[in-house]
Every structure is written in structure tokens, then in C-alpha cells.
Amino acid sequence: MNKIPWHQRAYRWMQVNSVENDPRDCDLDVWRKYWRDNGIQGTIINAAGTVAYYPSSNPYQYRAKYLGDRDYFKDFCEAAREEGLVVVARMDSNQATEELYQVHPDWFCKDREGNPIVHTEGRYYTCYNGGYFGEQLAGVIKEIIETYHPDALADNSWAGGRGFICYCDNCRRKFKEYSGLELPEKIDYEDRTFRIWMEWSQKSRTDLYAWFNKVSTTYGGEDCVYMGMLHPDAYAKSAMELIMDYVEYGKFNKAAMIDGQARMGADGFDANSLQCLSTHEIFGDDALVIESVATYQFATFMRKAANAKEETQSWMRAAIIGGVSPSTHFIGGVQEDQRAFDNGTEIFKWHKKNEEYLYHRKPLSNVALVRSLRNTCYYGKGDCEVKTIYPMNGMVAALKRGRISYFPIDSRQMEEKLYKTKLMILPDIAVLTDDELKTLEAFIKDGGSLVLSGATGMLDEFGYPRTTFPLDDLLGIRREEKEPINVDVNQGRIHNNACHNYIRLTKPGHEIFKGFENTAIIGLQGVFYKVTSDKLEAIAHMVPTFPTYPPEISYMDDDKRVSDYPGILAGETGYGGRVVYFAADYDRRYGETYFADFGDLLCNAIKWALGEENRIFSVEGPGELDCKLFSQNEESRLILHILNHSGMGKWPGCVEEIYPVGSQKVWIVLGDRKVKRVRVQSRDEDIPFTVEKGKLFFTIDQVPDHDIIVIE
Question: Which strands, in side-by-side order, build the sheet including 13-17?
């Protein structure tokens, strides 16, 4: 028996998401071959929940239509174990049949009139506060563990239905006990009762996650954890889509699973890397984090057609650079489009070869990118994409553009991460608690630097306007608006004169305007906050709006070429750090459009605020590269990842070819480290280097799709 826990030795994964006719049609030898060909070490196998693939003794557990007398789950498990694989039993738990509803209507979600909430024909949403989760599924988990002894469990829909308020008797009673209130009448983000309901919903799901972990480890042992399945974006595009608190889940587990099948629009590859990095910051550097990656065409949602190999591999690389184990995902045990079998092969072979450099490492970065679940819920509300996702994606893309390594943290983690932070970035984080504001104050007074934007710090922990703005007071910012601006989702339309605006560079020689020497203005087409400052310098001012159409009247009047309102404030904090405040929403606009000027402006601001003296490394050369630096073996080894996104565009789902890029000049701050060799893994060879004044210098001739440079 292997004494090393499964989560410390199984790094390459795959999942067949079984369908009901698999027990009749699937040839398990096909998957044995796949495991061998790809060096797979762990597999996720459908067990029960919405559909059972074994003859459950539970009378309420629906069995696969074509299961018959077969124990398909047992057969799959035995095949996997014969090949030496770790087995995770998968469930899908938020739906059940009408037959069960007739027996236990109290287990199901209800609308305000008491009617069951139907997901698809014949499938009803089960309520996470009812007996289905507390009794039925707990019994099923016990049965699976005692009968089949899986190494762990995962669950695709463990948190119940989202996007609606359940009015079942259990929810009514439990919310009353929690708050003393009746359930909110409807989804209304301005209603305080609804906001309390959101808090309660998050807590209820955290309690459920803890309960499932207790059941799983009680019957399976301390390593038989229940991982659930994490949403591919922990901060979501709609607050009602989420209602889950990953920071709390990280307190329970040694491993996590991300459902990374979706391709999330223009925030794709970068957002995937961001989510993977975030999960590690939550669960720990040495936690095993697995991401399930679709091999089918998610861009067009063709479940049975193979995705482009290059796109699948690019998505997997984005996860790997974030410290996550790759896992391919197939719908059904029979694949007629057999191109899907090739989608992960090259990555898995590369991963096996480089496994030593991918785990038990620590990110080397002093730039913290702050995210906030409360900001999602109480500022983003039902329009998170515009209010919270775009600003975050804009900063992420700017960091990549500048080849600056960062670590993403939840706002609740700020205090515990201060020891390694020189620069903190807050992209329109309107909602900050009093304690979080105190942490930021301590950070600034200890010499830390900030880049912040928009409404940061204007709202309290429940999203209500503050009467005073402590962060602004510390930075000398004065606001005319006392509440966040309602961003117009149509701001970019050509005829929208209200957003045809620019900044004028009133301090054109400032380092933040490097590359803009031949222009007096930079476009915005966005919104801005009317602010002044008695501490920070206004390096750019807003140009008043003027018509876009017809073109004959699209000009600035002589007396309206500049306003009194700054678009960008920058300066010293007075405590040894620097601060840049974007009153103009360039982070949002860059995350929405990926227009180069916006990216350069943000990138320059980040570099200036951080200061050259605090840069840890630099990679200079052509191409769009994502660069991350890590340490291993108590920092005796440095590992530089360079991920090549050149020529891909911003939209995942449609990548067809990956283009190598040319020579890159690299320097890395060594401190007291001594360098024995610099090795480029893609070429399996050492390269020449020099060391001057505590910095390591070397040149990489070419970057393929993904390269690792190992410094011993």
C-alpha cells in the first residue's frame, strides 16, 4: 500500500463524465489505453447523485437508464486501480426526479407560491437546506465509501441551485433563526434583507461543504476529502451565480477541484491563470489543485465534437503556470470524434517530463492583486461583468503586458499577506470592511505602495455608502460623488456622446506616460470620478465630452479642451511608498476592449508605483508572454515560467496555431544566491549567463508555446 497520500503523488488527471448509455456501450479498454498513453495518475469516475452508476441500495437513488444488473462504477474503479490510478468518486447532486419529489417534496426548492423549481423536464432542484443534502446524500456518500473505497470525492453541483431564492419551509425556518427576518420578497440588491440573505446563503453552503467533508473523512479516513467542484471564476459574473465562499472552503481541504470547462469570453486564458493562482493562495502552496479541462468544443458548446488541440493545450498551460494539475474532461465513455483523445497528450508528456519543477514551489512576487467576494455581491450585484470583472481583467492583462508576476488575494487575506507585499492593486474594490481599511492604512504607513481605481473604499461591508472615506483621507483625495457611479454598459457605442471623452496629459514628462511622447491626449470613452487632492499630483486631466457624430461637429471647443478634474493622480504617500489613483476607469476599459493604449497606461502606472528597485525580474523581447517566477528547495532553485500567448488574440475557444517568438533578455534579482547553471527545459541544455551586482543576466533565443528556465 502506498503510504504517500494521494494528493501528494497524483498530478495528471482525466475524467469521463459518464452518460446513461455508457454501462451498455463503453469499452473500458479504450480508457486503459488513454491512461497509459498519457501517463495519467488519477481519474474522476461518476458514482451517484443525479444518476447512479452502481446498484445503490438507497431506494431514492435514481439509476442509469441502461445500468441493468451491471455495477459500472465498480468495473471502472477496478480498471483504474489495476492501472495504478488514484480514484475520485464523482457526484452531481442538485437535481432529482419527479418520483422522489412526490415522496419527499420537503427536500426540494420552492418558489414563492410553493411550487417546485424545475431545472429540466423531469428533474427538480433539490434544496441545500433540506433532507436531500443532509440525509440522502450523506447516506449515498457513506455507501460509496464503504463499498468502493475511493480515495476522495468530488461533486459537480454540491451547492444546490443558484440564481433564485428558495421559499421552501426549511429555508423559511432557517433564515428566520439566523436573522429574525422573513425571506426577502424577491432578488433586490437594494433591500437590506436580501443582502443578509446572501450572507446567510454563503454561510449555509459553507456549513454544507464542512458537513460533506465530515461525512467523507469519517467513513473514508483523513485523506478521503470531499472536494466539491469550484466555479471557474470564484468572483463570478453575477453575485447570484456564486453565493459561495472559497476562502472558507480552503480551511477544510488539502485538495481542490476547479471546473474549468467553460471558456469565459474575452477574459479567457488570463482569467484561467488568475483563478488557478487564486485557488493556490486560498488552499496553500502545497495543496493539490486539479482543473477539469474540456476536450469538446465549448466555444460552440458541441458536447460530442472535439475541440481544437491547440486551444485545449493553451487552456491547460494557463492552469499549469498557476500551479494547477491538468485534467482532461470527456462527455461520455464513447467518443466518435477521436481527435479528442489527442488534445491533452502533448501537455501530459511535457508535464511528466517537467513534474519536478511544477510542485512544492512558492511564487516569487511582491505585487498583490486584491479581489473581494463582498465587492462581487454588494457592488457588482447583478452586473458583475461590467462593475467588477472588467476592472480586474484589465489589471491582470496589464500585469501580463508588463511581464510582472503577481499573486491574487481575497481582501480578507490582505493582513496575512502583507509580509511579502510591496505593491497592492485594488481595481475598483468599492466594498471594503473597516478592518480591511485599517490593514491598508497600516500597509501604507509601513511604506507600501498602491494602485487603485474608481470607487475603491466608498462602500461599507454590506455595500452601503460610507459617510467618510478613510482611505481617501489618508491619500488626500476629495470626492464630489458620495456614491459609486452607475457605469453605462453601452458606454462604448459610437453615438454615445456622454462617454466620448479623453485625458489631457498635463504632466507629459511623467514616467507613467512613457511611450506617449507624441500625443497630448489619450482616449477613454468611459466614466470618471470628480476628485481633487491636496497630496497627490494631477498628471492628467479630463477633457469634456463632445460629439462623435456627425464627424463635422466632432471637435473640442477652444474653452473645453481641458477640465479641472484629474483623470489620474500620482505621487508619494509620505511614508516611503507611491500611489496611483485612476479616477478615469482605464482598468475597466482595458478589460472590456484590450486596447493597447489602455494597457500601456496601466502597465506604466504599475511599474512606476512598484519602483525599479522593487522589481524581482524582467523579461524583455517580442511577443505576448505571461511570466511567473517561483522558488524551490528553500529558494536554492529558481524557476521562471514563460507562457507564450502570441497571436492568440483574447478570445479562447478558437486558437488554431501557436507561434514561437524570438529572443528574450532576462534579468533576475539573486540576493545572496549563487548560480551554478541556467537550464532551458525546452532545449534540454544549459545556456550562458552572467552575474553583476546581485543580478543574473541571460538571453533566451526563442520561446515556444511554454518554457521553463531552471536556475540552480
Answer: 152-155, 86-92, 42-49, 13-17, 325-331, 288-294, 255-259
